[in-house]
Amino acid sequence: MMITKRGWLVSLLGLLVAPTVAVAQARDTIPLSLDAAIAQALERSEEVRLAQSRVAQADAQVASVRAGALPQLNANLAYTRTFESAFGGGGGGGGFQPPTPCASSPIPMRRWTSA
Question: Could you say which of 36, 53, 75, 109 would form a disulfide bridge with 32 (CB–CB 3.0 to 4.6 Å)?
């Protein structure tokens, strides 16, 4: 079986690239203890985050149910300030009183009628 020029080039290229890939992979690895690996997995895991959010949601529901079982207290406060009437005395409900004609008045009071 005869190896062509192209086959030699592919083989030579493979031999040159293989050590470079192995060195790059060796640089990407970090030595970890079992405890460190577990801690890192728990910290970065999406499933763990989802489970933690479900636990937080359940805690919130428990707090809501407990709050509903406790007695409730409601308060309401209102304040109204009324000013003294411009037409009456002390705001006693007298309201507007038209002037009464007086016999000693210099201007006689007449009742106007429509023609």
Answer: 36
Mean pLDDT of the residues in the chain: 75
pLDDT in tens, 6-32: 776 677 667 666 666 555 556 677 788
> If DSSP states are collapsed to H, E and C, what string results for 20-48?
HHHHHHHHHCCCCCHHHHHHHHHHHCHHH
pTM above 0.85, yes or no: no
Please check whether residue 19 lies inside any domain of the structure. yes
Task: Give the Cα-Cα-Cα angle 87, 91, 94 (nearest 5 degrees).
Answer: 60
Domain range enclosing 32: 5-64
Q: Would 110 be classed as within a structural domain?
A: no
Does residue 115 sit within a domain?
no
How confident is the model over 29-67, as pLDDT tens digits? 778 888 988 888 888 888 888 999 999 999 999 999 998
Domain presence at residue 56: yes
Helix (H) or strand (E) holding 99, with range, is none
Q: Which residue has the tokens 């970890």?
A: 32
